[in-house]
């Protein structure tokens, strides 16, 4: 890989890894086509002890966002309160009272899915459509996240790369910022865990960066550069593996999924540029697999039933999600 030639590397990977036309010209589901009914039936067999784990960060004012491209943390406002009920000013009969609230937030400010309309490759969206014909001021008119609201239920596989590689790097349980996770790293982790990544799986990759950020917040120093700064993540060279493995989606515990800084001298999220518009792959970011990882390590089972439905916000190019893993 020539670090000085991101355009050439991206163009070559786009040709090798393209799924355009694979499921027809009208397709809006991309790699979720791999997660069919048979795959969901197989996923149910992953449930052994019935334990459930939320893989979501909290959606709160003290979240990780720092304002990059107008991304801010959730703003939570109460419109009815217990104080109002005690004061008897709500206008309800026979002593009943209640509370209501409103939240304002970017759809990608915490645990979320990137939809297929989120990233373009040289003016083209998923399946070769013109970007301007897909996403307009009215939203994603073709591949809005609502079109796949039923799709994210299947077999999840956790690859704890931070646990597998961290000790050898002097950072037990965690990968250092800037560490590029290659296909060989993914395969070696799967082998060490005794799990096989199968067609239609939703892959969850734990780097340990969120664990590190959580320590920082607990110490009172805040999230630091978790949102948008240096991070471990998937290498651009995993594009062929992500394509060939036929997984349905992939999520990480980092802000940007891929390694940051990126591996080229001048590039911004080059793996996104292949994964979303060319492969049709859904990307999850800022997931929290830590408690699940501890359970998987204790039981030796690294696959589970995963339900991670996006909010069906019409025309949205991404969505908050509360993924639930059932082991």
UniProtKB/TrEMBL annotation:
SUPFAM superfamilies: Putative cyclase. Coiled coil: none annotated. One of its GO terms (biological process) is L-tryptophan catabolic process to kynurenine. Gene3D superfamilies: Putative cyclase (3.50.30.50). InterPro entries: KFase/CYL (IPR007325), KFase_sf (IPR037175). One of its GO terms (molecular function) is arylformamidase activity. This is Cyclase family protein. It comes from Quadrisphaera setariae.
